[in-house]
Amino acid sequence: MTTSHYYWRSEAYLKTQQEYIDTLDKALTASERVVEVVIMPSLLTPRDTTIPLLREAAVRLQADLLLIFSITSDTYYKDKWLESDEREGVQHM
User: How far apart are CA 21 and CA 27, in angstroms?
Assistant: First the structure.
């Protein structure tokens, strides 16, 4: 991966994002007031994500509550050309 524009294709990045979602899911499920947590499928979410359209999608899922959150992060960016053995070679030049 050579540019940050394609970070979302990285398996490790996607794994990190899934861990965030799993953590939130576990915290919500731990509540006595929450019976079930359902992640809204992307097929139900339009590109134009306005509140009314998201509420409409939640109605299709028969959800009692709609929690909207976003995970934005550029903290995971790894260049393959800077592997540890190559970094040593660059440092000794």
Answer: 10
Q: Which pLDDT tens digit goes with each residue over 65-87?
A: 999 887 776 554 555 555 555 44
CB 24, CB 17: distance < 8 Å: no
Residue 57: its H or E element: helix 51-60
Q: Is 83 left (phi over 0), alpha (psi -120 to 50) or beta?
A: beta
Q: How far apart are the first and last CA of the chain?
A: 24
Residue partners of 58: CB distance under 8 A and separation at least 6: 40, 66
pTM over 0.85: no
Containing H/E element for 85?
Answer: helix 84-91
Q: How many angstroms separate the CA atoms of 39 and 61, rounded?
A: 10
Whole-number CA gyration radius for the chain: 19
Amino acid in position 25: D
Rounded to whole angstroms, the Cα distance separating 55 from 7 reads 30
